[in-house]
């Protein structure tokens, strides 16, 4: 038997065959110039039991990964507009095609990654500066509004989780027609609880595409995956469910 720190904080004993199966799932983590959280995202993948594969923005292939994480940071220094330059990286063309293909590659965009997904039109709407015009770093409570996506199936609908938030361009905006569609189609995946930290419309913290394979959110689940190193609530591991969810999807096949 071996131990994997699956969601809940304490290691969970699994048989060697299951551990090998999880480790066979390859999650690509993309690095752009200015990316800050790629190593954190890779560590989260490994803690969940998968294999992290480093992807460089100038790559022209996806290295046969089973899913992709676009992590946070300040790609290209947020010049022009957060995520606007990264959207044109060679690797993003491959990610866009794979996410929209019949295979529906799972893609998670965190913070700057969420900004890149909106700039790439994999997700609707846009991100602008926080309504208070300041950089903000704090632990943030989120409510899981949709646990049917590839990245949220290990959560309960309505569950509240706490993960760190750190951004200056975190205000999610869209026109009323788009917002109404997101609500009606169940594509609001996370909502801020207790306080809206950046002025996002309808307290939206994260959304998905129609298929549920692409999810973007501003808070950072990869910083809440290990006891003692994340928020104090729930052992600080509330973010690990993102990574176990996608691994369970990859290993278990279609839901």
Can you walk through the features of this model?
The chain has helices at 16-23, 38-48, 90-100, 112-119, 176-184, 240-252; strands at residues 2-4, 12-14, 26-31, 51-56, 67-70, 107-110, 126-128, 136-144, 160-167, 171-173, 188-192, 204-208, 214-217. 51% of the residues are buried. Residues 6-13 have low confidence and may be disordered. It starts with a strand and ends with a helix. The chain is globular. It is an alpha/beta fold and 255 residues long. The chain has a 9-stranded mixed β-sheet with strand order 4-3-5-6-13-12-11-8-9, sandwiched between helices. Keywords: ATP-binding, Cytoplasm, Glutamine amidotransferase, Hydrolase, Ligase, Nucleotide-binding, Purine biosynthesis.
Summarize the structure.
It is found in: Cytoplasm. The protein has 255 residues and is of the alpha/beta class. The protein has six helices and 13 strands.
Low-confidence stretches: 6-13
Characterize the biggest β-sheet: 9 strands, mixed
- Roughly how many Å is the radius of gyration? 17 Å
What is the count of helical runs? 6
Q: What gap, in angstroms, lies between the N and C termini?
A: 27 Å
Pattern of helices and strands:
EEHEHEEHEHEEEEHEEEH
Query: If you average the pLDDT, what whole number results?
Result: 92
Order of strands in the sheet with most strands: 4-3-5-6-13-12-11-8-9
Overall morphology: globular
Helix content: 10-25%
Q: Which class do the helix and strand fractions yield? A: alpha/beta
């Amino acid at each position: 038997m071996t131990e994997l720190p699956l969601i809940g904080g304490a290691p969970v004993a699994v048989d060697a065959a299951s551990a090998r199966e999880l480790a066979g799932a390859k999650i690509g983590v993309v690095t752009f110039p200015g990316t800050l959280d790629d190593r954190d995202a890779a560590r989260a993948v490994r803690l969940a039991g998968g294999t992290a594969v480093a992807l460089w923005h100038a790559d022209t292939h996806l290295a046969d990964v089973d899913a992709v994480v676009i992590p946070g940071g300040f790609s290209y220094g947020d010049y022009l507009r957060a995520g606007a330059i990264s959207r044109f990286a060679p690797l993003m063309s491959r990610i866009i095609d794979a996410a929209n293909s019949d295979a529906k590659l799972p893609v998670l965009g965190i913070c700057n990654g969420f900004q890149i997904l909106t700039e790439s039109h994999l997700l609707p709407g846009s991100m602008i500066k926080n309504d208070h015009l300041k950089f903000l770093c704090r632990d943030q409570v989120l409510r899981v509004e949709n646990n049917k996506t590839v990245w949220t199936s290990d959560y309960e609908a309505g569950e509240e989780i706490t993960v760190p938030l750190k951004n200056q361009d975190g205000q999610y905006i869209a026109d009323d027609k788009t917002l109404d569609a997101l609500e009606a189609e169940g594509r609001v995946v996370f909502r801020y609880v207790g306080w809206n930290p950046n002025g996002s419309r309808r307290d939206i913290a994260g959304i998905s595409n129609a298929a549920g394979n692409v999810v973007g959110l501003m808070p950072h689940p990869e910083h809440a995956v290990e006891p003692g190193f994340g928020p104090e609530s729930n052992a600080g591991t509330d973010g690990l469910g993102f990574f176990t969810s996608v691994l369970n999807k990859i290993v278990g096949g279609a839901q």
